[in-house]
Input
Amino acid sequence: MSNPTELSNFLSSVERRAYKQALYAVRNEHSALDIVQDAMIKLAGKYGDKPAAEFPLLFQRILQNTIRDYHRRQKVRNAWSTLFSSLMPQHETEDYDPLENLKDDDNQSVPATPEASMQQQQIIALIEQGLTRLSSRQREAFLLRYWEGMDTAETAAAMGCTEGSVKVHCSRATQALAEFLKAKGVDKL
Amino acid sequence: MRTTIIAVFLLLCVTGSSAIAAEKSWHSLTPVQQEALAPLSQQWDKLPELEQHDLLNTASRFPHLTPEQKLRFHSRLETWSKLTPTQRKAAREKYRAFKNVPTEKQEQVKQMVKQEQARREQTMKAQQAADGIPESVRK
Amino acid sequence: MSTNTTDNNRRGINPEAVANLLTRATQQLDSETVTALQRARDVALERQLQKKPVLVLHTGHGVRGLIPHSTHQWVAAAILLVTILFSGVNYWQHTQEHELGHLDAEILADDLPLEVFVD
Output
């Protein structure tokens, strides 16, 4: 049984990465924050009494599901906006898509710190851009496996798929990312 | 002791499942149900059981509606009952989705629909005037 | 940055190096986002605290007295369980249908015309 401090420590250790993960997936800062908050509340409310060692896997599973739910809702919303634009042709239903004007945000909004070289900032921006272009399953697998440091079995459990497909997603993600970076002039990392 | 328990259990099963089935004729409906479903009185007895069941569930909300809502409810009931289950399901999904959209967006859409309706009505009136038909009874 | 394995060389990137850079990016989040995350965490922790007492009550009780001993009790317990399950499913189905009825009535009475929702 865990205590509030353990949960607090866990959340503060994971929240920034979780936010970035959500941001790469939904490309909207507000929605990304909402998603992280939702996932945190679900973890605390439903599984807050679980042993602290189980938090990482539980949290990732909740986070990925919350992101997926968001995409599903977004799909309905988009279908909806097309419905109305077909019904009422002359009006400004285009501004419906909240993703539209935020697409390039994460490339520019990284503030440079004095010690980090300009070049490194650019590479980070490129990696982040590359991540948003991966398929959602590839991105999930790549981030869980390499950034969250989960092994194949844990990643599979968090994603709700087989270990085999985790491996496939990971290798495709790495390949796609490498190709994207190469096209942008980053040969090796 | 054991037989009593089994008897109670069986009784529960029977009463539980009976709530699901059973076709109802128009005359067996309560006055409140009849009022809510009035536009369907003619075809009610021919409707499939499941549809009757769904409609009765829908009708249970009728007494709680405002007079204005009751009018709309009645005017749409027949169209609604003629939809296929898939159409109804799709409509429910759209309605739910619409209710999830931020309120200001909802208002915007309502405004657009109103404008569209007004325009349609106007062209219809113009046409009727041209055809020499008096204004329709329906608003 | 860690050295590459031959496998990663072939692909051109080392996932570990990518991960390190991503972590660096999280250290550069603007203060507004960091505060928002902190607030989110506090809200979540409050939810955990609210739930605690209920759980304590649960674990505090002994379950021994509730375990059936004779066959007779086992049969009774099984029947009770099935009955609860059955009425639970029934109830669930009932509320489900009820909610659907509510929704349909709402659609029928809404100030937006039906055509908007029907194809």
In short: Residues 27 and 87 of chain B are 29 Å apart (CA to CA).
